[in-house]
Write a structure and sequence with these properties.
With about 260 residues, the protein is α/β, with parallel strands linked by helices. Helices cover about 40% and strands about 20% of the residues. The chain has 2 domains: about 110 residues, ATPase, nucleotide binding domain (Nucleotidyltransferase, domain 5); about 150 residues, ATPase, nucleotide binding domain (Nucleotidyltransferase, domain 5), CATH 3.30.420. It is built from 8 helices and 10 strands. The chain is globular and about 60 Å long.
Length: about 260
């Protein structure tokens, strides 16, 4: 039985084809200004990769901020539930994750899982860009750097400086001030990553979600400098996965499988 999960995020749209035991195909595309149309394109891409047709899908589940913008799906799943299901399927080298950190383009989630893999508690930052991938993208542009170079130089920094602004708008002004003082771009980039790590660390402490193993998912999990800053902030190992950015789409497909079996 094949199922599809589509995660229509504010920044990117992800899709996964799942056969009950493994991921057959996956894709990520920028959501753009017409996320419903992007969802169709991403689904077509994964169907082609999996070499199956839409008619062969037992079910399509949508999730993400744009989950109700498309009529492609026959199931709608919340991001929290989908993220938990995707994280449990991915697992970690130390077993099922107990704490999941999901950093996306426009929101950040910390989720606690019980022994059965179900969500027991969560906290979410979705009010502004602070603590999200968008915060880093804005500052990379302010430094006139590509995002990849921004991450690279952050890893090369050996000097710790404090960035006080957590608001992306105010942080831009702070970057200008730091540059005027002769602070190196690499050190500013490292401080920006540390700022997000501090924010996520505060979320973990507020939720009292400090139970290992940890799994790091979302687009933020692809950022090596952010992974390093988070591990330094919370003092524990954060596991990731090759499909970390697709965790929520995967979770939607997993849930669709489970519901169809019932």
């Amino acid at each position: 039985m094949y199922t599809a999960g589509i995660d229509i995020g504010s920044t990117t749209t992800k899709a996964v084809i799942f056969d009950g035991t493994s991921i057959l195909a996956s894709a990520v595309q920028p959501s753009g200004i017409a996320p419903a149309e992007t969802a169709i394109k991403v689904l077509d891409a994964v169907l082609a990769e999996a070499k199956i047709t839409k008619d062969q899908l037992a079910s399509i589940a949508s999730t993400g901020y744009g989950r109700r913008l498309t009529d492609l799906s026959d199931k709608v799943v919340t991001e929290i539930k989908a993220c938990a299901a995707g994280a449990v399927f991915m697992g970690t080298p130390d077993g099922r994750p107990n704490t999941v950190v999901d950093i996306g383009g426009q929101d950040t989630k910390v989720i606690q899982l019980g022994a059965d893999g179900q969500v027991t508690n969560f906290v979410m930052n979705d009010k502004c860009a602070a603590g999200t991938g968008r915060f880093l993208e804005v500052l990379a542009m302010k430094l006139e750097m590509s995002y990849d170079d921004f991450v690279k130089v952050a890893l090369e920094s050996t000097t710790q400086i404090q960035m006080n602004s957590t608001c992306a708008v105010f942080a831009e002004s702070e970057v200008v001030s730091l540059l005027a003082r002769g602070i190196k771009k690499a050190d500013i980039a490292a401080a920006a990553h540390a700022s997000i790590a501090n924010r996520v660390g505060s979320m973990l402490r507020r939720l009292d979600a400090q139970t290992q193993p940890y799994l790091f998912v979302g687009g933020g999990a692809l950022n090596a400098a952010l992974l390093k800053s988070l591990e330094e902030n919370i003092g524990v190992k954060l596991h990731s996965h090759q499909h970390a950015q697709r965790a929520i789409a995967l979770g939607a497909a997993v849930i669709a499988q489970e519901e169809n079996k019932e």
